[in-house]
Amino acid sequence: MSTVEQVERRPWVVRRWPAAAGIAAAAFAGWGIEGGADVAAIVTASGFVYLGSAALQRRNAAWPVFAVSFVAVGVGTRVEGVNATWVMLALAAVLAVYGVLRGALRPPWGMPLQAAALVVLAAAALVAVQANQTLAGLLVAAGLFFHACWDTYHHRTRRVVALSMAEFCAVLDTLLAIVVLVVTFA
To answer: Where are the transmembrane segments (predicted)?
Structure first.
């Protein structure tokens, strides 16, 4: 039996564990939210993970960077006065300097492009936490949908992050964007 046939015989959840994890994460993140501002930091986290992986020049670094973003979002959610977006931007600046020192400015689709995406996503998240509920929901949902397309592109081109991270993030971003839109317009 070939390796492909062995993989095909495994249950869906084993073959597609990143998608299953993305579904679970979206359910967890979307549970009980009152608007887009509640999950705005996740928009920043999506860009932060890609920048971190590009700066470290290791696709598999995406999962440890994701763990850092998970902690930052958790602290930002639970600790009054802590904005996880600013925490991740500070960490991203450190990673960017490290990346520049290690020569991560090439290829251009690596750290330079990921830094630009992070700036756009973080700006949307920062505006969302200050905006009215409708605008916050639209900004966060748009950021998440944009990043789901970003994930899909990077999954197909096998660039910047591990395939499992791109798959996980595409599912999480898409489902969470839908939840944000439902909550915004319900």
So the answer is: 12-33, 39-56, 61-79, 85-101, 113-129, 160-185
> What digits encode the pLDDT tens for the residues 106-119?
999 999 999 999 99
What is the pTM (predicted TM-score) of this model?
A: 0.91
Hey, CA dihedral for 175, 176, 177, 183, is it positive or negative?
positive
d(CA 60, CA 131): 35
Prior bond to 11 cis, omega within 30?
no
User: Exposed, middle or buried, 5 (CB in 10 Å: 0-12/13-18/19+)?
Assistant: exposed
Alpha carbons 51 and 47: distance in angstroms, whole number: 6
Contacts of 95 (CB under 8 A, 6+ apart): 51, 52, 55, 56
CB atoms within 10 A of CB 145: 17
Amino acid present at 141: A
Place of tokens 């605008």: 135
